[in-house]
Design a protein that fits this description.
Radius of gyration: 22 Å
Strand content: 5-15%
Shape: globular
Low-confidence stretches: none
Mean pLDDT: 91
Structural class: alpha/beta
Strand order of the largest sheet: 3-2-1-4-5-6-7
């Protein structure tokens, strides 16, 4: 695009093909559209098919001039499992299969492209853009505290703090993550740090992609200053352009209810939503229901599943539990026979569904607590709704998120590395009854700070404006360097 062109900036956005990444980056795409930018959003073929099937995605985005969807292969067979640790196979597949396809796609739209907002967990996007000569801004969809801990992994290795030498070291304090020296334990580090040696592929991938963000023009984080200010200060010592623009769900909700827009936020779900849960919630007393969901990737064993179920039923509290069809690992030939007391207890006080409209659920008057895997979208959605949490992290950033929820922000309880029915029962009762007042007080205060951050003059609102202005300044800055 020539300098002085009257066309708006054109941004290409490419998320890692996972529910949490797609969801938050679609929200960013819509915020940019509302600010008058043109956007090309690139999805994996597999995820785009699911989005079109289960949401009003295409109708919703058709209202924005200059918006288009494009798709690429993720390198995995259609039938390949994309949950649990199997999801990690996506990284290598995309580097081999998707990168050359993506490069050709970008070169085809380069004359009008201002920049790429690439998922910072997909290292090949930055590589391809640099090879072509297009500015890249990284978007990390994890928490700032998680991003910073990933960034500090080389320092932990140099200091001999990882690899972690046995289970007896899990409660040892980690001293080489600046700003977290007093409370971060080995068990709170991202799950990829739990390795026997430095040759572990997943550890290498996460370390390399995080350090590669130094080569990008900027770093977008879905967080806000009042939540993660100390960690953001540490990050800004190494990165010059850091845009903390979250919480994106709250930011977009506020934009869409403005008189000039007058529309409502809707689902970005890769699963079919069961709205019967909302009718069930309507019949429950205020703040009486514990919402339970371990997200889109977590897979439990049958034994873990039963421990949670026993704990929930034994707590005598009402619960709404999200159970994807693939969320419990099944052994070949294993029968699905469950103790009758669990089935009866659920009929009396609970409801189990495959997927929910989570943002609506957390905002419902009947919901008083959230038992969560501690994924970053879920954590932020709970914070925005003022709902206290019990965190049972599965992998990746969830371990450190749960530590911050419990120890730093005092928004709930950290149950990592424990799956015992008695512990589940006690923590549910602590959250919903015995210690409820203190958690509700902290959650209400943080929810107010979240709302303030996206209001006019708030930190996230200001930072979003800065991001958009910086993108506008990139018009005309592209120099093609790859003609192959």
């Amino acid at each position: 695009m020539e300098k002085g062109s009257s066309n708006p900036p054109h941004v290409l956005i490419f998320p890692l093909p996972a529910q949490g990444h797609v969801n938050s980056m679609l929200k960013l795409a819509e915020l940019l559209c509302l600010s008058g930018l043109y956007v090309t959003f690139v999805n994996s073929e597999h995820n785009h098919e699911r989005l079109v099937r289960f949401t009003d995605l295409q109708v919703r985005f058709s209202q924005y001039q200059g918006f288009q969807f494009k798709t690429v292969a993720d390198g995995l067979p259609v039938e390949h499992q994309r949950t649990g640790y199997k999801f990690l196979e996506t990284f290598e597949a995309m580097k081999v299969v998707t990168k050359p396809i993506f490069k050709e796609m970008v070169k085809g739209i380069t004359p009008s492209l201002s920049c790429i907002i690439g998922d910072g967990a997909s290292e090949f996007v930055l590589e391809a853009a640099i090879e072509i000569g297009i500015p890249v801004i990284h978007f990390r969809t994890v928490s700032s505290c998680s991003f910073w801990s990933y960034f500090c992994i080389p320092d932990m290795i140099k200091a001999g703090e990882i690899p972690i030498k046995g289970s007896e070291e899990m409660d040892r304090i980690v001293t080489t993550v600046p700003g977290m020296e007093t409370f971060l334990r080995c068990r709170d580090l991202p799950s990829f740090c739990r390795v026997d040696g430095m040759s572990d592929l997943n550890l290498q991938v996460m370390t390399n992609c995080t350090r590669q963000s130094l080569r990008a023009r900027g770093l977008i984080l879905n967080t806000f200053e009042d939540l993660e200010g100390p960690t953001l200060s540490q990050i800004r010592r190494r990165f010059s352009n850091v845009y903390s623009i979250g919480h994106l769900h709250e930011h977009l909700r506020k934009k869409l209810i403005e008189p000039k827009h007058q529309t409502h936020q809707s689902s970005n779900s890769l699963w079919e939503v069961d709205r019967n849960c909302m009718s069930w919630l309507d019949k429950q007393p205020s703040k009486s229901v514990l919402y339970v969901s371990f997200g889109s990737l977590a897979v439990t064993t049958k034994e873990q599943f039963l421990e949670f179920w026993h704990g929930l039923v034994d707590s005598k509290k009402r619960f709404l539990w999200v159970m994807r069809a693939d969320s419990v690992a099944k052994r070949d030939g294993e029968a699905e026979d469950y103790p009758p007391e669990l089935v009866e207890g659920t009929k009396e006080r609970g409801l189990i569904v495959e997927w929910t409209p989570q943002e609506e659920v957390l905002a419902h008057e009947a919901v008083g607590g959230f038992l969560t895997h501690g994924g970053w979208n879920s954590t932020l959605e709970s914070i925005a709704a003022g709902v206290p949490m019990i965190c049972w992290p599965y992998f990746a950033d969830q371990q450190i998120n749960s530590r911050f929820v419990g120890e730093v922000w005092k928004l709930g309880l950290d149950m990592k590395d424990v799956c015992d029915r008695k512990v589940v029962e006690k923590m549910v009762n602590d959250l919903m009854e015995d210690k409820r007042e203190e958690f509700v007080r902290s959650a209400a205060k943080m929810a107010e700070l979240a709302r303030n951050s996206v209001s006019e003059g708030g930190s996230s609102s200001h930072n979003l404006n800065c991001l958009i202005e910086d993108i506008r300044l990139m018009i005309g800055s592209i120099t093609i360097t790859d003609e192959s």
